[in-house]
Amino acid sequence: MTRVLVTGFEPFMQDTYNPSWAAAQLLQDKPPQGLEVTAVQLPCVFSRSIPALREAVRESDPEIVLCLGLSPYRGISLERVAVNVDDSPGLDNDGRQPVDEPIVPDGPAAYFSTLPVKRCAKAVHDAGISSDVSLSAGTFVCNHVFYGLMHLLAEEGNKRRGGFAHVPHTPEMPAVSGSGIPCMPVDTTAAGLRVVLSTAAAHRSDVKVAWGTIA
Ligand code: PCA
């Protein structure tokens, strides 16, 4: 059994639902074969999210960590790179808005995901679910947690692998109606994420396909 930690976020800004947490729970309830999934919800708060993530890693001792968050992208977006800056477009759930602050002072400018992002995105796409690699997780709490995750894994000597995926809105979310924001039923999102986890568990190396040719 491969132990996997999957995190999702609580709702933030105007939303009352966050499909990243719903999908994480679906993965825990029905994990891919050979994987044992622990789902943990993280606060959408700059100051508390990384400590909560570190605690979850300590408790579940996973071999693979996949953090999830909501974004207005079309499909499941495998994030390639986390950058060392908080530049918040709005208030977090504690009412804070850091602007141009390093996540880890004197830390590296960026970390790459240690999951095979192109292989995962391609496998999801080939399974008929929209997916691609993304080159920016933004500069809000998702990138913050992604950077905090990769910093922790690096500090530990990269004995665990990890990364981040953004998931789409669901059709029922009020923000979607009439807005043009793309959406995906949460069961489809969870099905795609099962493919991500199975692929990441089975392969360390990535595939060499050119940028822009997966979706
Ligand atoms: N999405 C936000 C933070 C929490 C979430 O689910 C983001 O993309 O930064």
- List the strand order in the largest sheet: 2-1-3-8-4-7
CATH structural fold name: Aminopeptidase
What general outline do the C-alpha atoms trace? globular
What percent of residues are in strands?
Answer: 15-25%
By CATH reckoning, the class would read Alpha Beta
Q: What string gives the helices and strands in order?
A: EHEHEEEEHEHEH
Q: What summary fits the major beta sheet?
A: 6 strands, mixed
Put the structure in a nutshell.
With 215 residues, the chain is of the alpha/beta class.
Search tags:
single chain; 215 residues; alpha/beta; Aminopeptidase; six-stranded mixed β-sheet; two-stranded antiparallel sheet; 8 strands; globular; binds pyroglutamic acid
How does this structure look, described?
The protein is α/β, with parallel strands linked by helices and 215 residues long. The chain has one domain (2-213): Aminopeptidase (3-Layer(aba) Sandwich), CATH 3.40.630. 32% of the residues lie in helices and 20% in strands. It has 5 helices and 8 strands, in the order βαβαββββαβαβα. It has helices at residues 19-29, 46-60, 117-126, 141-155, 186-202; strands spanning 2-9, 35-42, 64-70, 76-79, 81-83, 110-112, 131-134, 161-167. The strands form 2 sheets. The chain has a 6-stranded mixed sheet with strand order 2-1-3-8-4-7, sandwiched between helices. Strand 1 (2-9), helix 1 (19-29) and strand 2 form a beta-alpha-beta unit. Helix 1 (19-29) packs across helix 5 (186-202), helix 2 crosses helix 4 and helix 3 (117-126) packs across helix 5. The radius of gyration is 16 Å and the shape is globular. The model has no long low-confidence stretch (mean pLDDT 98).
